[in-house]
UniProtKB/TrEMBL annotation:
The keyword Iron-sulfur applies. Residues 20-224 form the Radical SAM core domain. This is 7-carboxy-7-deazaguanine synthase. [4Fe-4S] cluster binds at residues 33, 37, 40. One of its GO terms (molecular function) is lyase activity. Binds 1 S-adenosyl-L-methionine per subunit. Mg(2+) binds at residue 42. Its cofactor is Mg(2+); S-adenosyl-L-methionine; [4Fe-4S] cluster. Pathway: Purine metabolism; 7-cyano-7-deazaguanine biosynthesis. It catalyses: 6-carboxy-5,6,7,8-tetrahydropterin + H(+) = 7-carboxy-7-carbaguanine + NH4(+). The keyword Mitochondrion does not apply. Homodimer.
């Protein structure tokens, strides 16, 4: 049977985070995440209720965040890209937690059509995707769901992007890098929710450690 993915949002915008910041991108937001970060931007994606399934057109036409999702195959998704006239050639698969499902079939189809793929993941599930896919791991420590960061995810990561608001978050990241033997990867600090104190902490810590700053550009310029 052809795999169907539960899609909460599908839109074209500018990537606002990490190494691809500034890149026109098509975003696919998958439904479902059990990790439970208290400051999560996308709490509307957490629960998967079968009663929240909607038609693809209803999902695409959403004007506000909701927990509605549509079940789509890779081919359904490609057909929507074409119908919408999207020009971006980079696809960001996020959520929710996209790595709860095997993304290999999806990324294989996209890459065969000339797209590059990127996954945004918490690193708490096995990362199943193509070799060329860019993987952004944003490790989550001590969250409500109790999920643990996998060493395989830290090793697969092309970049590590850590949300920070307190010194504890920096200490958590340093411990993770040691525990999972991570060396020579780009490390981004991302201030949580544009808070002034978090941003100052991130700037200072980036300079001290030769890490990079990711400031969720889309929120500053008011795009999706
Ligand atoms: C919404 S998550 C979805 C993908 C995946 N579950 C994850 O956590 O990486 C996408 C990115 O947004 C970050 N994020 C979520 N809420 C945030 C917030 N309030 N401030 C800064 N970054 C946030 C996450 O850490 C992650 O890098
Ligand atoms: N513009 C834009 N860039 C993003 N980068 C990561 C996002 C996410 O929610 O995963 C995101 C998002 O929601 N919008
Ligand atoms: S892992 Fe990602 S989607 Fe899940 S709660 Fe945390 S930030 Fe939100
Ligand atoms: Mg977002």
């Amino acid at each position: 049977m052809t795999t169907k993915y539960k899609i909460n949002e599908l839109f074209e915008t500018i990537q606002g985070e990490g190494a691809f910041t500034g890149q026109p991108s098509i975003f696919l937001r998958l439904q479902g995440c059990p990790v439970g970060c208290s400051w999560c931007d996308t709490k509307h994606t957490w629960e998967i209720n079968l009663s929240d399934e909607v038609d693809q057109q209803v999902m695409i036409n959403k004007t506000a965040e909701s927990d509605h999702w549509a079940a789509l195959t890779s081919e359904d998704i490609l057909a929507i890209f074409n119908r919408q006239g999207f020009q971006a050639k980079h696809i960001v698969i996020t959520g929710g937690e996209p790595c709860m499902v095997d993304l290999t079939p999806l990324c294989t189809v996209f890459e065969a059509q000339g797209y590059s793929c990127q996954i945004e993941t918490s690193g708490t599930f096995e990362i199943q995707t193509t070799e060329n896919c860019w993987v952004t791991v944003s490790p989550k420590v001590n969250m409500k769901g109790g999920y643990k960061i996998l060493t395989s995810a830290m090793q697969r990561a092309n970049e590590i992007k850590h949300p920070v608001a307190t010194e504890q978050h920096i200490d958590d990241l340093k411990a993770l890098l040691v525990d999972h033997a991570v060396t020579a990867k780009p490390i981004y600090l991302q201030p949580i929710s544009q808070k002034e104190r978090a941003t100052q902490l991130a700037i200072k810590t980036c300079i001290e450690n030769n890490w990079r700053l990711s400031i969720q550009v889309h929120k500053y310029i008011g795009i999706e």
